[in-house]
């Protein structure tokens, strides 16, 4: 007798395997899962949360939640993309509810360092930080790239990516405003991405 899993399309079976490996702590599998699903989940979030900057922050939080919950995925209850979409939709809806419950404030100051948001690239086909780390042959590349960050940026990105905390949890841990922490993480990811891309290119040239 065929199982429900055997009736799934090939993509769903592949995503199920990636989720299973992610649940066991396999970062390479998680990076691949991100690459194959982030554009879809980002579109889901944007349909609910129209503010692109908030949607980008939510996408990071969603994948932190996926990393934590991957081991609990039940193939008997839903297909992987359905499960992932549910997490994304719930996070986006929750963000709207929180925004409605809190008064809006706007800063009267402008940070001259704030240019175009580099996270516009987060849902594209380019490699993200996790994928670049997995492709880098030299494990010291991360340490070297982290040296280019300011101490607050290093601390916040380490808490967000390596300890799996959300932006709100990082802000609470560091006792800093949420907006400040988000800015640190955004800039840190932009710097790390550029540095790791250069490291990967150098590794590939050496291996050519």
Description:
This protein is mostly helical and 208 residues long. It has helices at residues 4-7, 10-23, 27-48, 52-69, 80-101, 129-135, 140-146, 151-162, 167-174, 178-207. It has two domains: 8-104, RNA polymerase sigma factor, region 2, helix turn helix motif (Rna Polymerase Sigma Factor, Chain: A); 127-208, Orthogonal Bundle (Arc Repressor Mutant, subunit A). Helix content is 69%, strand content 0%. The chain is globular and about 50 Å long. Residues 103-129 and 132-139 have low confidence and may be disordered.
Features:
Rna Polymerase Sigma Factor, Chain: A, mainly alpha, 208 residues, 10 helices, Arc Repressor Mutant, subunit A
Low-confidence stretches: 103-129, 132-139
* Main β sheet profile: none
Helix-strand string: HHHHHHHHHH
**Shape, please?**
globular
SS element count, helices? 10
Roughly how many Å is the radius of gyration? 18 Å
Distance between the termini: 49 Å
- CATH topology title of the largest domain: Rna Polymerase Sigma Factor, Chain: A
CATH superfamily of the largest domain: RNA polymerase sigma factor, region 2, helix turn helix motif
Strand content: under 5%
Task: Bin the helical content.
Answer: 55-70%
What count of structural domains? 2
């Amino acid at each position: 007798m065929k199982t429900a899993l055997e009736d799934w399309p090939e993509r769903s079976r592949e995503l199920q395997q990636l989720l299973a490996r992610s649940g066991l702590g396999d970062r390479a599998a998680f990076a691949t899962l991100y690459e194959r699903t982030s554009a879809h989940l980002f579109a889901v979030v944007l349909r609910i949360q129209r503010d692109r900057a908030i949607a980008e922050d939510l996408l990071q939080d969603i994948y932190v939640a996926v990393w934590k919950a991957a081991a609990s995925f039940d193939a008997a209850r839903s297909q992987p993309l359905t499960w992932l979409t549910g997490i994304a939709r719930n996070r986006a809806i929750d963000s709207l509810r929180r925004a409605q419950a809190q008064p809006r404030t706007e800063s009267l100051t402008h940070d001259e360092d704030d240019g175009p948001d580099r996270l516009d690239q987060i849902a594209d086909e380019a490699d993200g930080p996790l994928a670049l780390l997995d492709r880098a042959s030299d494990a010291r590349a991360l340490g070297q790239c982290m040296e280019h960050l300011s101490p607050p940026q290093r601390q916040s990105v380490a808490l967000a990516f390596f300890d799996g905390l959300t932006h709100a949890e990082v802000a609470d841990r560091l006792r800093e405003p949420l907006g400040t922490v988000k800015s640190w993480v955004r800039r840190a990811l932009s710097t790390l991405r550029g540095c790791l891309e250069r490291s990967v290119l150098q590794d590939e040239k050496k291996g050519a």
